[in-house]
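ok so I'm stuck.
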Amino acid sequence: IVNVIDALVTAPPNRTVSAEDVRAAIIRAGASLRWQIREAGPGKLVGTLDLRRHTAVVDIPYSVTSFSIIYKSSIELDEAGGQIHKNYNGWVSNLKKGIYTQLLLI
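replied:
not stuck anymore, here's the structure
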């Protein structure tokens, strides 16, 4: 199971990024990849991806300087002993890339 831990927030040159900008970038990236993103408290979102009969749930804490994508739970992804269905890590990687793309559009 791949977790993204404290990925650095990057922004276009000469731009200042707020926590709200990071939050919005995460939500936009998630929506573009079919993740449902919901609030889970200050500086924390939860993402849920439902594909066919598979469900992945991740915690996404964020700040002005970093964000993480941390495995929370799953259905039908055969999670056991730190292992999980091969597609899960790709979904997390794509979400991370999507967040970086959205940050560049600030």
